[in-house]
Design goal:
The structure is a homodimer. Chain A has 13 helices and twelve strands. By secondary structure, the first copy, chain A, is of the alpha/beta class.
Chain lengths: ~400, ~400
Amino acid sequence: MPSISLKGTNMPASPIRKLVPYADGAKKRGTKVYHLNIGQPDLETPKAFWDKLAHMDMKVLAYCPSDGIGTYKEKFSQYYNKLGIKVDPSNFIITNGGSEALLFTMMSCINEGDEVIIPEPMYANYIGFATSSNVTVKPIPCSIENGFALPAISEFEKLINTKTKAILICNPNNPTGYLYSREELETLRGLALKYDLYLFVDEVYREFVYGDSEHFSALNLEGLDNHVVVIDSISKRFSACGARIGALITRNKDVLAAAMKFAQARLSPPSLGQIAGEGLFDLGQDYYDSIKTEYKYRRDLMVSLLNQIPGVKCPTPGGAFYAVAQLPVDDADAFCQWMLESFSYQGATVMMAPASGFYSTKGSGKNEVRIAYVLNGDDLTKAMECLGEGLKEYKGLAISKEKILV
Amino acid sequence: MPSISLKGTNMPASPIRKLVPYADGAKKRGTKVYHLNIGQPDLETPKAFWDKLAHMDMKVLAYCPSDGIGTYKEKFSQYYNKLGIKVDPSNFIITNGGSEALLFTMMSCINEGDEVIIPEPMYANYIGFATSSNVTVKPIPCSIENGFALPAISEFEKLINTKTKAILICNPNNPTGYLYSREELETLRGLALKYDLYLFVDEVYREFVYGDSEHFSALNLEGLDNHVVVIDSISKRFSACGARIGALITRNKDVLAAAMKFAQARLSPPSLGQIAGEGLFDLGQDYYDSIKTEYKYRRDLMVSLLNQIPGVKCPTPGGAFYAVAQLPVDDADAFCQWMLESFSYQGATVMMAPASGFYSTKGSGKNEVRIAYVLNGDDLTKAMECLGEGLKEYKGLAISKEKILV
């Protein structure tokens, strides 16, 4: 029997999805599962999308151009222009979700064995795409104590060597929800220029920013046209995760040309999601305001309820719809599995993503979880109550075990 | 300015799509372009697909499971069962087109620098996926003289060494249209067992088989459950290229587990194409019969017309909707570009894919083109006439040039 590859062995399992069999088990037993593990918004996909889909005037569902449908790219770039970002359709390559955009970016820009610096905790799949591309991730630790803010410039410089080719951030951040300030981005600009590094910025949560803070796009950093590659997607912004429509956006023509060859090899991104998705960019400010209001309400509710649970610590995130919380447990992986396998409260349990999978440094984040606040306020309240009860029972079990051992 | 990666540099441009700017130029000048360059069927996507799409009863277009929607996998495996192939949904991972299935297969099964043997000419994008995965392609030359049949077993054995991990074929073949016989597959089975190799078989053209021959699936080769990975897609079978729904099918549990991790990293394949596509597997034999009848008619027409053009040679392919033809030119790349840039006949020209891009051996296939017969009979007839006139004029130009040089 032929063996599988080293890459296949080393590829990490998704911390977001690896507990799915336990969740399925809980559901089979009749337990309701509150899904806080995955960034799957519950808000409705806008009507404009479904309307377009119901009235497709096509006979043949053909391939589209490898870099996406022209009119779709046009609409997408106009949305950027409205945000004050100067790009045109030629700066876009439409991809199979933000995932593929990131894979193309890594493959186009970084040689095997070269390094990309990523603040950790980091979006777990960055580690997967780096494994796929043979790129080495150099994590730079952030601290829950300051809400996971950008580490000091000196910490970055300690990691930079001849193999360093890029810095990758997600802004606002998945999994921490941290919103990088303009000043922090200027810091990264300085590093990119000083060491001639790429700056990859995943801005899929750009519109999810709460309070008075504003999102500052890396595409607006001065003098960095050849350094910045932005990853985007309609998945979260428009509750359209299943469309699998993302984009790679850059002004660097060499990167566009290289990425286009990877795009050609897989022929084209999905046509349906683009055709139905064109109308989404016509949605007005009221659409964005309404989702912001809803998520801000949920964030405030969840963070407040979390911090009321004894032993739980959760900073208030500035954006996205995630938070990383510290739990009073030794091993959040075991706890999250136990919640699905062995616990229920009023017929329900909670599914979270253990944070260990969001750390590239082995052993980090053992007592943390990522929570996505993608449930309505009522369910979120019930889920937090359930989590509190779960922690209480789990702690009780641990004490009984200790007593038995003694 | 940071440089792009070696992989980005080495990635081949698609021979199918690289002439697109010249075709666009021709269209701008008002010249009609007969597209024989790309395997984009002109037949209508079945009504079942559009009906389903027009009546989607959803509010949120959510991610689906990383390995695809359960009911879709069920339908897909039932289609296999009807063909006499014993598989169940657990053998399937649904992918972003056949392209991603092949990428996952290579990444899961082959270490960097290890080798896969592929008969050439080969589907151009195999070279691209191998480049993406750092896999070395070892081409095994086939000859137009015997219609691109499988080379002798001794030729394979000359190439097999400790780095050889797999043999990859496309059956029926893209670009040659060659249909491998059951005997040829049994030969490959022998090699796979003797040298413990994977056998990857791209069967996306399975239903496009003409005359009395039958397609024999590699999944029905005895004792090869852990060796065979089949690539499939709904793109060609149901004229649904833009849906981007493919599949990796294998009984090897280790390969499924490894591929699942790559699948999880990109979250999910497109939901819409799967939901709308479920009904396609209910289409009866009359659907398959009608497309076979149409493509057989086109094949016979095109091959006959091609062979009537002085200096053109084209074997009769047994399946798929491609043929590789030898043209009386020194450099088919230059000729194909000239056809788009400088030639028209009755207001039209023909776009073909130069075959050089389907050879991994540099310098091979210089006087060959791949032609996809994805136009109706009338257009195909006009396109062949146009090609004949183009060759006549091109030859005349070459003679005038020679005279000038003399």
